[in-house]
Design a protein that fits this description.
With 200 residues, the chain is of the alpha/beta class. It has one domain (9-197): Rossmann fold (3-Layer(aba) Sandwich), CATH 3.40.50. The chain is built from ten helices and seven strands. The chain has a five-stranded parallel sheet, sandwiched between helices. A two-stranded antiparallel sheet has the order 3-4. α1 crosses α8 (160-171) and α5 (108-117) runs antiparallel to α6. The radius of gyration is 17 Å and the shape is globular. It starts with 8 loop residues before the first strand and ends with a helix. Bound molecules: adenosine-5'-triphosphate and magnesium ion.
């Protein structure tokens, strides 16, 4: 009997809230016939919420429990590709299961507009905008998963279709994986906009 061991691809899509993760990750999952996991929905469905951050009015997930559950899901998946969408994906998928991590980036001027359209205001808006300006998701992904698998993708001004094609090109080896391609703080400094955009 020949045993074929097919390795699954596990692709994480992370980035600041509102950057476009879900829109892009869902398209990518369709193109790859992949299992799509939205971590916010997953945590709710599998009772992985540990409590509430009252100040931020957001849910805090139990990372340890989520990690165990995610590994179970990856192992049980019949699909050969799994797309995991969420800004803490890097923290809940053990490194050895991860094929690639895409950190989506969006110019803070455009991101602020999208956040406002989605109803973000006050501290929630400024904290998330500061996270994008200061590369928080990128730094966290690198710290948790190392350099080799992390790619950044600047989605500013791109349609979801275009961004998805770029991800497919990197996965297919037709494009290189890069990090360090945006410098929002430098851009804001040049435009004299730091005080207007970085309020925290
Ligand atoms: N490529 C794009 N160009 C312009 N607008 C977009 C693009 N992708 C998504 N959007 C819009 O930006 C908003 C945020 O998109 P989306 O929900 O995909 O982001 P997200 O990163 O998943 O956010 P969250 O972290 O809150 O889940 C939505 O209103 C969506 O319609
Ligand atoms: Mg989302």
């Amino acid at each position: 009997m020949i045993l074929t061991v097919m390795k699954k691809s596990v692709i994480l899509i992370t980035g600041t809230p509102c950057v476009g993760k879900t829109t892009i990750a869902q398209r990518l999952a369709e193109k790859l016939d992949a299992l799509y996991i939205n971590l916010t929905e997953y945590a709710e469905k599998h009772h992985l919420i540990a409590g509430e951050d009252e100040k931020r009015r957001t849910r805090v997930i139990d990372e340890e429990k989520t990690r165990i559950k995610i590994v179970e899901t990856i192992k049980a998946a019949k699909e050969t590709a799994i797309i995991i969408d969420g800004h803490y994906a890097h923290a809940v998928v053990p490194k050895r299961y991860v094929t690639r991590i895409f950190v989506l980036r969006r110019n803070p001027i455009e991101l602020k507009r999208l956040m406002e359209q989605r109803g973000f205001a006050g501290d929630k808006l400024w904290e998330n905008l500061a996270a994008e300006i200061l590369d928080v998701c990128l730094v966290e992904a690198l710290q948790a998963q190392g350099q080799e698998k992390v790619c950044e993708l600047d989605v500013t001004g791109k349609t979801a279709e275009e961004a998805t094609s770029e991800i497919l090109a990197v996965l297919g080896g037709r494009e290189k994986c890069f990090i360090g391609l945006v410098d929002w703080l430098g851009m804001l400094e040049k435009e004299n906009l730091v005080d207007e955009y970085l309020k925290i």
